[in-house]
Amino acid sequence: MENRDDKLIAIIGLLAACLIGVTFLFTMTWLTDVRHPTDPSLDVQSCSPKPHPPISHPS
Predict the structure, then answer these.
(1) 25-41 pLDDT, tens digit each
(2) CA-based angle 23:24:27, to the nearest 5?
(3) Is 0.70 surpassed by the pTM of this model?
């Protein structure tokens, strides 16, 4: 019976460690994204597509 309890405690500890690790990685990624300043020179609203030159086929 004690062997079963040890396995259960080991599984719970492993799952808890995985949860803590995933939470830590998610938090660090989110903080990095929030603190990253956006480039003010890039304005998506004012961009207009450039016309493509006509494709000339060799004869």
Answers:
(1) 999 999 988 876 666 66
(2) 85
(3) no
